[in-house]
Structures are given as C-alpha cells and as structure tokens.
C-alpha cells in the first residue's frame, strides 16, 4: 500500500517512511474521505481540510491523486493509491464522499467500496445524481446496513473551495452525524450555514435538481436581457455598467455579478470583448431536462425553465439556424428605445420573469414534497440558496421571509411582497416583450413567464372551447358554468364529413 500525503499533520509530527511502504505510525486516522479528485472533489477536500479535518483522498487514476497531494504539501491530506488503503486510513464510522461523474460511475465506486466497509459507515454521494438513483441507492445501502446521504452540492469550483450550498437527503440520524462537517464547510449567510437536512431518501438530490433548473431559467433570462441591449446598440462597457448597477440593487446575485465581469473581459487574441468571440451554442448536462420530465410527471408548469432548456437546444442547432437566417424573414433586429428607459424596462421584465421562474420551481418542489411525504420546508430551502450556490441572490431573503411568514403559501406570486413587485413590473414587462417581438428578437423565457403570469391571474381561460373540442371528437364530456361542479354533460355534436 502506498500512501502519499501532504506533510502538515495535526500534531506537526514528521512523516515516517518505512522500508517498502509509505506509512505514518503516529498519525491518527482521517476524519473524512473523498473519492474523485476532479474539480469539485479537489476543492471540497481543500475546504474540508481548511476547517481542521484530516482528509484521505482516492482517485481512480492515481496520477491525479499524486499531483493533487504534491500540490498541497502543507495540508492534512492523505493520498491513497488503493481503495483498501483509503478505507483503512479513515476513522470509524467512516465518512466517505463520492465526487465522481453522476450515473454508472457512482454505482461502480459504491460496489467496489462495499466489501471494504463496516456496517454503519457513511457514504455520501455529493455529485449531481438523479434523485431516483439516490432513492435506489438509499434502499440498497440501507438494506445492507450502511448509511447513505445523497447531497446536492452547488457553487461550482469556487463554492466547493470556499463554502458551497449543500442539500443533503437521507435518514435524520445520519444527517446528525454529518452535520458538524457539513455546517463547517458550507457557505454562511448572516451566520447561518447554507446547509440543512432537506428530507429523507432522494430529497436532497431532488432539490438540487430543481435548483439547477432554476439556474437554467436565471441564465436564460439574463441572456435575453443582453440580446435586447445588444440590439439597442449597447457596447460591452455599457453592458458591464448596467449589470454592475443591477448588482448593486435589488437584482443583486452571483449570476448578475459574473455577467458584469464577463462584459469586462477582453479577448487577448483580438482585443475585442471576449463574449463577442464565444460561439453561441450552449451545452447542458441533463439536470434541466430531468427537471422538465419531473414537472410533466407532476403536472406542474415550469414554463420559464422549459423555455430555458429549449433555448439551449435551439442554440445548439447552429448550422440549421444559420441556414434559416437567410430564408425565413423577420424585422431588422434593431431597437431604438432610449437607452436609460430601456434599462429600467428590461430590469422590470427580468425581475418579474425571475420571480415567476422561482414561483414555478418552488411550486414543483412543493408538489413533489407532498407526493413523496418528504416534509420539505420551503423557507429553509430558500435560506440555504442565499449563499454559496450559483443562484444565490438578494431576493432569496425575501423568498425565505415569504415562506417563514406563510409556510403554506400556495404560490410565491401571492406573497404580498412579490404581488406588489409583479403589479409594479407588469407594464414594463409587457412593453419589453413587445419591443423585442417587434424587432424579431427571441425572448422565449420572458414570454413564457408573462404567459404564466397572465394565465394564472385569468379567472376565465379559453379551455371551455377546448373541452367542447374534446367532447366533440372523443365524448370526453364537460362541466357547465351554470351547474354545480362535478356534473358532467355530453352533446351529440353534428357529423363532420371528410
Ligand atoms: P466529473 O463529473 O468530470 O467527474 C470526474 C471524476 O469522476 C474523476 O475523478 C474521474 O476519475 C471520476 N470517475 C469517472 Br468519470 N468514472 C469513474 C469510475 N467508473 N470509477 C471511479 N471514478 C470515476 O467531475 P466534477 O466536475 O468534479 O463533478 C463531480 C460531480 O459533482 C458530478 O456529479 C458533477 O455533476 C457534480 N457537480 C459539478 C459541478 C461543477 O461545477 N463541475 C458543480 C456541482 C456539482 P478519473 O480521474 O480516473 O477519470
């Protein structure tokens, strides 16, 4: 067994190398173990270690482990070449976090770990696993006497290093064991750690999935604002100023902040703004798609997130779009609205759409929580998104307040604070969508959000005609406006020839 390690030990004892093996007889076992030393794993290890814990690490490809350990000689990090060595280096009950690619690799790691573990040891899957996989693993490992936590970790590389938002799901008793480590490594907002026990089973990974869906929505809404400003002739410098100003106001958020920084970044090769040389095709890893599938299964509308996922798909069809751009006609993408006026209008449209996106995402979390009996606390979920994660934003304080005041809130739009905002924003929101549409600029997420808002506030929708159509071709029956609900009627519609 070969053990590589960063030198600094808790008690500053020298590292002892015995013939043939690397071994330290004096050093205590590690408090925490992590498997998977890619970007997230490495940064989480540094984070955990920085809070005073000794961490053992293992990676399938040994060279990655060796390089990582060598880069951090002063840290209490123990590198192991073999899984056996890794497992043996951990204090009992072992706490092992897996940070590998979601899907098959997680099962592969668990399967190779199981013969080496003792009952009661804790495995934490910190990757972006599909919550149904987490539910399966929870049962599988629970039945075998092991303890399992499926924890969503958000914040990317920087969050993992400095303090992520963590969404753990699993048995309460296992959470209690992990709580001190999770609370110490998580981001803090107003002294509160951005981690809470989300619920049992796959609840943590489920909430992380919706978090990612909301992230898709936020990013697309910002892109639509940018596209409108571009058509109005804003330079990258002007865009940087707009987003910096927004970040100093009620739209303050990580994504607005990094967007301002992106506009300030020049391309060393051309000297132009870097954003202008980046190809307009977006990638995705699947959490947005999973969110959509789950929304359909739960009959919950998440039209903003849906539009965001579809926008990425359309963006990836670059060749088809280029071909169509010279065949299909539309107006010149040019906006002549006064720039200051436009900034205010787009601010309102963006904020209103963002409220809708969160309202929809939280609606889906509520529906699924009820379906699964997870007992989810929306105020706590919103609170742990206030720091560390990609969607962290000032207005999550207001969302937290709204759910603290009314835990049974039926829709975020109906919390008085957000109702007032939407009522105030709605006129500019409409105007922005009109301006963009008349200039042929696609604003699918702005439009989907407004469509949801208008549908939700419509006491009467045209579904009367829809029910008539259904009854016409399929005798599906309908209810009447002038009869009690629950009474169903059918009409013998005329035959149609053809
Ligand atoms: P990746 O998702 O790129 O995974 C790379 C790691 O998985 C490497 O350590 C690799 O080992 C290991 N691995 C693979 Br691939 N197949 C394996 C197998 N069959 N057995 C053992 N190890 C295997 O890493 P990441 O970007 O750090 O993300 C880790 C997890 O965290 C993912 O689930 C990701 O979705 C999630 N996440 C990522 C971010 C982010 O910003 N990147 C943010 C939040 C969550 P190798 O070195 O031997 O190939």
Describe the overall structure.
The chain has 498 residues and is α/β, with parallel strands linked by helices. It folds into 3 domains: 8-201, Rossmann fold, CATH 3.40.50.720; 208-456, Orthogonal Bundle (N-(1-d-carboxylethyl)-l-norvaline Dehydrogenase, domain 2), CATH 1.10.1040.10; 464-498, 6-Phosphogluconate Dehydrogenase, domain 3 (Single alpha-helices involved in coiled-coils or other helix-helix interfaces). Helices cover 52% and strands 9% of the residues. The protein is built from 19 helices and 12 strands. The protein has helices at 39-50, 62-71, 83-88, 104-113, 131-143, 156-162, 172-185, 203-231, 236-247, 254-264, 287-297, 303-316, 318-325, 339-372, 378-384, 395-405, 416-438, 444-456, 463-474; strands at residues 3-5, 17-18, 21-22, 32-35, 55-58, 77-80, 95-98, 122-125, 147-154, 165-169, 188-189, 192-193. It has an 8-stranded mixed beta sheet with strand order 1-6-5-4-7-8-9-10, with helices on both faces. A two-stranded antiparallel sheet has the order 2-3. A two-stranded antiparallel sheet has the order 11-12. Helix 1 links the parallel strand 4 and strand 5 (55-58). The chain starts with a strand and ends in a 24-residue tail after the last helix. The model is unreliable at 1-26 (pLDDT under 50). The site of nicotinamide 8-bromo-adenine dinucleotide phosphate has 23 residues, from helix 1, helix 4, strand 9 and helix 6.
